[in-house]
Amino acid sequence: MEIPYNTPYMTGRELDYLKQAHEDKKLSGDGKFTKKCHEWLETRFNVKKALLTQSCTAALEMAAILIDIQPGDEIIMPSYTFVSTANAFVLRGGIPVFVDIRPDTLNIDETKIEAAITDKTKAIVPVHYAGVSCEMDTIMAIAQKHNLYVIEDAAQGVMSTYKKRYLGSIGHLATFSFHETKNIISGEGGALLINDENLIDRAQIIWEKGTNRKQFFQGKVDKYTWVDIGSSFLPSELTAAFLWAQLEEAENITNERVAIWDHYHDAFKDTEKNGYLKRPFIPTDIHHNAHIYYVLVEDLDTRTQLIADLKNHNIHAIFHYIPLHSSPAGKQFGRCHETLASTTSLANRIIRLPLYVGMTTEMVDIVATKVSDYLKTTHIDLKKAV
Questions:
Q1: In whole angstroms, what is the distance from residue 315 CA to residue 311 CA?
Q2: 8 Å CB contact between 292 and 275
Q3: Nearest one of 219, 177, 171 to 194, comparing CA atoms
Q4: What does the DSSP assignment read for 209-250?
């Protein structure tokens, strides 16, 4: 049996909605399906405004423009994240300031943020790794104290909550990803969520290539023209049509993924108890969306050998992220606040296991057994390491 790392899931209505978009003779974007997606996101997640984008990267780039990042502005973020989190701000001349992550959740360590703030700091970008929320109350309090923006990078966090609030509804701005590797997909795709009402009008202008086209169709101006910087951020109506089929099933998709995640978690209970690995940690009052199931092993060599062993058994497992602070561009464009010991250690030890809708409990048991058996037979003791 071959067990892939990921298999993109289709609900069964995607192709029908693509056909409808074609029949509506509206393929270029901002049509019926775009509006349906916007309304769903705004209502479900209790955000002031949602705008679909071509990717989460595009949404982050919009956010950088919206908060008026200027050359030399500093943006606090984790190094353990995808390159887009930093690149969106570097494109505007911003400087990523990398802060270490917590060893339990792999999210930015909120206790280290305030010490990284300088008179050049403009924003904090918490990344909700694996769909598990950062400690948002603390982060928002720090931001309010220092008059900073908070942009939630919730690329992996669709349908997750923090203290009964959906991720994406807490910061001034937030971004989602609907990439094919995410829970809710449209191939490529993303969304910018806006919770600060003062940013809505300009966001729509930036979204419309820097024009006031939206105001024109709302009857607020008699013609539309170029009024600000912007770009072609809105996706095609085909992307929105595909996404709409996914959003209709978002709760069912999430529930099925959580059931698979829970089965993994139970299967690894004894292996963790015996000191061979560490399972994910979910803080109290946080509900995750089961975007990733990972385990932490002793060191890089163990991870490399275990991934190879799984591959020999037709199980495809991967690791995640070379920390940005250790990358060539990260060294050139960003800087570290203090040492990033946890980031470096955890990035070397994490293994992401297969998880997708349609994965059977038999498959989960096979993966869990192969991982546990390998670690036991090589007599690795992680009790001191974790």
A1: 5
A2: no
A3: 171
A4: TTB-HHHHHTTSSSS--B-S---B-SPPHHHHHHHHHHHHTH
Q: Which two tokens stand for residue 322?
A: 């070379």
In whole angstroms, how far apart are CA 332 and each of 75, 97, 156, 215, 328?
15, 12, 27, 41, 6
pLDDT, mean of residues 127-131: 98
CA 321 from chain center: how many Å?
13
pLDDT at 383 over 60: no
Q: Which two tokens stand for residue 333?
A: 């464009």
If you search the block for the tokens 């790794």, which residue do you land on?
129
- Look up tokens 């598990």; give the residue: 132
Instruction: Tell me the pLDDT band of 379, cut-offs 50, 70 and 90.
Output: low
For β-strands 95-99 and 335-336, DSSP reports them as parallel
β-pairing, 149-153 vs 173-177, is: parallel
CA 184-135-149 angle, to 5 degrees, is 85
Name the DSSP letter for residue 192. E
Q: Which of 195, 201, 189, 190 is nearest to 230 (CA)?
A: 201
Measure the CA–CA gap between 134 and 110, rounded to whole angstroms. 8
Please give the structure tokens belonging to residue 109: 């360590």
The mean per-residue pLDDT over the stretch 354-358 comes to 98
Q: What is the pTM of this model?
A: 0.95
Question: Where would I find the H helices in the chain?
Answer: 14-23, 32-45, 56-66, 83-90, 136-146, 200-207, 213-217, 237-248, 250-267, 269-273, 300-312, 328-333, 341-349, 361-377
Residue 322 contacts by C-beta under 8 Å, 6 or more apart in sequence? 347
Structure tokens given for 87: 């690149």
Q: Which residue has the tokens 């990398």?
A: 98
Distance of CA 246 to the CA centre of its chain: 17
Report how far residue 343's alpha carbon sits from residue 327's, in angstroms, rounded to the nearest whole number.
13
- Confidence bin at 250 (pLDDT 50/70/90): very high
Query: What are 138-148's pLDDT values in tens digits?
Result: 999 999 999 99
Residue 323 phi, psi dihedral angles, 5° rounding: -50, 135
- Say if residues 275 and 383 touch (Cβ distance below 8 Å): yes
- Return the DSSP state at 298: S
Rounded Cα gap, residues 53 and 233, in angstroms: 5
Token readout for 196 is 């600060």
> Domains in the chain and their CATH numbers?
14-248 (3.40.640.10), 251-377 (3.90.1150.10)
| DSSP helix/strand/coil, 274 | coil
